[in-house]
# Entry
Amino acid sequence: MPAGVAPRVLILGGTTEGRLLAGALDGWSVISSLAGRTSRPLLPPGEVRVGGFGGADGLAAYLRERRVDALVDATHPFAATMTAHAVAAAAATGVPLLVLRRPGWVEGPGDDWRRVPDLGEAAARLPRLGDRVFLTTGRQGIAAFAAVDDCWFLARSVEPPAPPVPKRLRIVLDRGPFTVEGELRLIREHEVNVLVTKDSGGPAGKLVAARAQGIPVLMIDRPPAPEAPTVGGVDQAVAWLKVAAR
Ligand code: NAP
# Structure
């Protein structure tokens, strides 16, 4: 890299970590990329682009066109398609790739978790496990429960879901982080008897609340981890980028 020219990083974001990383990179030219799923996203500092690239080839073309020096996949652990495209585009262009993923949750004493591989299996396990469900899989995950007629659902998402949705559904529009007290209030007020969540990692208020209330959790496992260098926190990502920029 020529002396005096700021190295350029493309951060694939849509997460708290992606936003924090964009603000932590002094001396870098930062571009953050969002999918455009929410109409009022929390914007990271620096340049922001919105919308898909047109597959792995489109991302590779973008990396070349914008002369990107390093690529960070800071997408949500369940954004598996975007991550696969990042791996393929990095391989095609030779741009170094780092995956920034917060660690998954770990079951502890007092927890009652059932791990399931995907949303479909979580839907199949209801209503045997509980019939008043707190569904925290995000807007796009709600459709997988549309045919579960024997349950009542309290579903939380940033924006309203598109059909199909379960027949008996109450939506709470809200954006995290959420407190343990707030989660307990929701669980008690709506007499929830099972929590459904993706293993997203990060603040765990709903899991602490489920433990305190003694209700089971259907924990949806992450898709397989990509084969790429991976760190769990923003500081480690900054350190990796310092080395990559040399
Ligand atoms: P996905 O299924 O892995 O990706 C589908 C397509 O959306 C990708 O092929 C890509 O289109 C586009 N895309 C995804 N993330 C993008 C980004 N950061 N910048 C530009 N294009 C992007 O993704 P998803 O699960 O729908 O997630 C979409 C976004 O929401 C991600 O930014 C993710 O971090 C965030 N998010 C997801 C979840 C979740 O549970 N999945 C939860 C919280 C936040 P092209 O092929 O056209 O490039």
Remarks:
- The pocket of NAP is lined by residues 12-15, 33-35, 37, 52-55, 58-59, 75-76, 78-82, 85, 138, 198 (CB under 6 Å).
